[in-house]
Every structure is written in C-alpha cells, then in structure tokens.
Amino acid sequence: MSLTKYLDVAPEVAQALKDNRPVVALESTIISHGMPYPQNVETALKVEEIIRSCGAVPATIAIIGGRLKAGCTHEEIEHLGKKGQEVTKVSRRDLPVIVAKGMDGATTVTTTMLIANLAGISVFATGGIGGVHRGAETTMDISADLEELAQTPVMVICAGAKSILDLGLTLEYLETKGVPVIGYGTSELPAFYTRKSGFGVDYELDTPAEVAAAFRAQRELGLKGGMLVTNPIPEEYSMDADVINKAIDEAVAEANALGIHGKQTTPFLLAKIKDLTGGDSLDSNIQLVFNNARLASAVATELCK
C-alpha cells in the first residue's frame, strides 16, 4: 500500500531529501501543549528560521485533518498554536483512530520519530525526551519515547531526559533496549534545565562529524533503533539546580496528591514548574530547543556528505 494514502511530505522537504540536502524534523506537541499562544507559534517559526540559517530544511511534523504531515506550512503551525490544548496529543497508540477520524494531532517524540522515518528524515531536534517516571516501579509509567528509540532509526537530539523523570532508570531502560546515549561535548547526562545530572552517558562525542559517523555506522551495521544525542543547555540559560529540583519535587508531590497520571503528567508538571520558577523554566526550555536545532542542522549536514 502506498504511504501517500496517509502521508503528505511538504514540497520543500521532498525536494531536499531528493537532492540529498539536510532536513531536520521538529515535533508539534511543543506548539499545542508546550506554551501559550502566540508565544508557541513565534517559537516554532523561530526554530524553523534557525534551521534554515544553518543551511538545513525544517520539517515540523503534525497531523492535520487526519493527514500525517512531514513539514507544516506557517498557516498549519498557526492553526495548531491557536487551537492549543484542544489538539489531541498523539502517541503511537493514538495514530490509527486520529487518522481514521480525520482529526488534528500534535506529535510527541514518539510520533515525530515515526512520521519522520516514514518520510525518510533521519535527524530530529526536540527539547527533552520522555522516560521512566518517578515511582514507575509501582505505576509502570514509562514513556513510549523509549520504545520508539528502540525500534525506529531516527537520531534524536535533545537536552537530555526531562528532569521530572527518574533519570537513572531511564538510562537503564535505554541500555536494555540497545539505544546508544551520546553526550555532545559532555560525559554527563544533561538534565534538561541544567547541564549536570550526576549520571554518565555511554559515549562523549565532540563534533557533528563524529556524531554523524556513529549514526552512519549504526545504520550500516543493520542495528535497529535510533540514537539519543544529549546536548547540554547553554551555560548562560542553565538554571540553578537547587531551584529547579525544589520546584520539581513540589510539582511531583502535587501531581501525586491530585491523582494526575498518564499523558496528563508531563504537561501538568511542566506548567507547575513554570509557575514555581516565575517563567524562568519556560525561557530555558525555549533556548535549549534553539540550541538543539543548531546541532541537529550541523549533524544532518554531515550525514549528507
């Protein structure tokens, strides 16, 4: 069956892939669920602009009217931003129903990887991945992002796992699934808002060429799954670890008290942390996405050589 029944690859993206020019995938949950309008749209368009300024082509991934989109127009990004949380947050399990019903969907890390791979895009820049939630030994709350990394051959460039998670268990899970965790210029896993976590990565690589070479080798060896590249937030935007950890602990305690779980957990915690830090966490979040977009563009460029 032809994928064109479900998938629309934007003309600019299709041409770049055909010409072996670098393309960087971007998620859409950050637009609809990550921040308020119009800041969400301004940020999404700024990320695309950064990727273009680095010589690559951006492909914002989403589902519009049941169509899988590899590359959104400005109008489609505006649509997702204005509808905000009315747009369904779509993970792998949600795709069949959202597509069949012709609904709009904001793609998580999982579905962005999946759709990027269907379109032939192999590099994806995001903020942070999901992982093993605190208390998962009793709740079994483990993000589908980790399973997607285990089976879909896309490189995910992020600022580490979100620090609301159990980072140690997240790394253990990725090891079990055979996913290489690379530190870009660091031997320590960045913790999203901060550059340090106290946990080591599998390997430190220091240039986009080295990262591209490792990913190329992974694919040529026929190893299934993706690669996680963790890129620390720039020093000037890094938050004070004590401040952010105190905010996270408070937010987690409130989520537990309110019985919030599943796909509601991360948006609740991030919104609560934003309130507790006076908006500083949102500013940091935006800057680390910009930083990851630059690195993803450089790595995608190397992969095309």
Question: What do you see in this structure?
Answer:
Helix content is 47%, strand content 14%. It has 305 residues and is α/β, with parallel strands linked by helices. Strands 1, 2, 3, 4, 5, 6, 7, 8, 9, 10 and 11 form an 11-stranded mixed beta sheet that branches. The longest helix is centred in the last third of the chain and has 24 residues, at 280-303. The chain is globular and about 50 Å long. The model has no long low-confidence stretch (mean pLDDT 92).
Quick recap:
The chain is an alpha/beta fold. 47% of the residues lie in helices and 14% in strands.
Percent helix range: 40-55%
Order of helices and strands: EHEHHEEHEHEHEHHEHEEHEHHH
Radius of gyration: 18 Å
User: What is the residue-mean pLDDT, rounded to a whole number?
Assistant: 92
Which spans have pLDDT < 50 for at least 5 consecutive residues? none
What proportion of the residues form beta strands (DSSP E)? 5-15%
How many strands in all? 11
